[in-house]
Specification:
This protein is α+β, with helices and mostly antiparallel strands and 368 residues long. It is built from 10 helices and 8 strands. It has a 6-stranded antiparallel beta sheet. A hairpin with a 3-residue loop joins β7 and β8. 23% of the residues are buried. About 7% of the residues have low confidence.
Length: 368
């Protein structure tokens, strides 16, 4: 029984990739996972051209990493897989030029400004001896700002092509970038620049970029100042004006002003009505002269009659009769003295004190 085909490919025993993606793009870049990073970090694998030896390939990778530019991707690792040399680069941080064009819809001057930014990166790559025209359109990306990014190392081949590394190198790549960023026929003089750059007709890459900046400035000056920003790099990373147009509030129309005026008038009328209702004669202040107040005599509640039950005394035989002493007799209730009758000359609150009522039928204890 034949073993089923594996749906995974491990490059150099470390990077996990898809065999289908490798068949679709034999040169890369393809998405992969670094299985030794601890969290399976996402990377991209790029395969180099044939003919490199070990020392030459390592020296070329070192020169590329020495560029030290944040917009140019570096190399994380390199090695050999099935006889082919490869590079490991970080994942992409931007979007393709076609997607940026669809979301932003740039004008001719803005497309020229983006192409000029890619041209500054191409100058650094060409100065280091790497072929700029070896790049494809998919090797460039656009980040926020917009910020240009070069997505993979342009090592080329060990057999240097004089057409790729000569002084005219990079002009055809910039022409492709400008066509992808605008997608329409540019006005003059940008149309003349595009045709000349596509044929690598400028003396060198620096002359090509200078002519691009001048043509873009001329097109921008023919438009209104608020439509386009300067083509130079001073306006490349500043989108505050563009964001201000998106966040600017809409002007107020006359129905909103009329509704606001009616509400203010209604509030004034209601306040005036409340103030008018509270007007009139003020209440007279209270008389501060003290006046006597009659106090009703406090009524004393009558106590209920208490019934005392006497248990007959039983004499036990053989026990001598105990003499009842006066000290053993229960104490009698103290007599309440009668209140003195008020004299006729007394007046005031003392004359209004009442006599306590009779407590009622109370059984007294028998005499000893």
């Amino acid at each position: 029984m034949a073993e089923p085909a594996s749906n995974a490919c491990v490059i150099a025993g470390r990077y996990l990739a898809s065999p289908a993606a490798l068949r679709t793009r034999p040169e890369g870049p393809i998405e992969a996972l670094d299985t030794r990073s601890g969290r399976a970090a996402q990377v991209r694998i790029v395969f180099a051209s044939e003919g490199w030896d070990e020392d030459g390939f390592a020296e070329s990778v070192s020169r590329w990493c020495a560029l030290g530019c944040a917009e140019i991707c570096g190399a994380l690792d390199f090695g050999v897989h099935e006889g082919r040399r490869f590079l490991v680069v970080p994942p992409s941080l931007g979007m393709s030029i076609e997607r940026w064009r669809a979301t932003r819809r740039p004008g001719p001057a803005e497309a020229a400004r983006l192409t000029l930014a890619f041209g500054r990166l191409a100058e650094r790559v060409a100065a280091a001896g790497f072929p700029v025209d070896a790049a494809e359109l998919a090797d460039f990306a656009v980040g926020p700002g917009p910020t240009p990014f070069l997505e993979r190392p342009l090592l080329g081949s060990p057999d240097a092509n004089p057409v790729l590394v000569g002084p005219r190198d990079g002009q055809r790549t910039l022409a492709r970038i400008f066509r992808a960023a605008l997608a329409d026929q540019p006005p003059e003089p940008l149309a003349g620049w595009l045709e000349r750059a596509g044929d690598a007709g400028f003396t060198d890459l620096a002359d090509c970029l200078d002519q691009l900046e001048q043509c873009g400035d001329r097109v921008r000056n023919e438009l209104r100042p608020q439509d386009e920003q300067p083509v130079g790099l001073e306006g490349l990373f500043d989108e505050r004006a563009y964001e201000a147009e998106l966040s600017e509030p809409l002007p107020r129309s006359w129905p909103r002003r009329l509704a606001g005026g009616i509400g203010l008038l209604a509030a004034v009328v209601i306040s005036a009505a409340l103030l008018a209702g509270r007007g009139g004669a003020a209440p007279a202040p209270p008389d501060p002269t003290p006046r006597p107040v009659a106090v009703e005599p406090a009524s004393v509640p009558a106590h209920p009659a208490r019934h005392v039950h006497h248990r007959p005394h039983v004499r036990h035989p053989g026990r001598p009769k105990a003499r009842r002493h006066a000290a053993s007799a229960p104490p009698s209730a103290p007599a309440t003295p009668a209140p003195a009758a008020p004299s006729s000359g007394d007046s005031g609150p003392a004359s209004q004190v009442g006599v306590l009522p009779d407590p009622g039928n109370v059984d007294t204890l028998p005499a000893p």
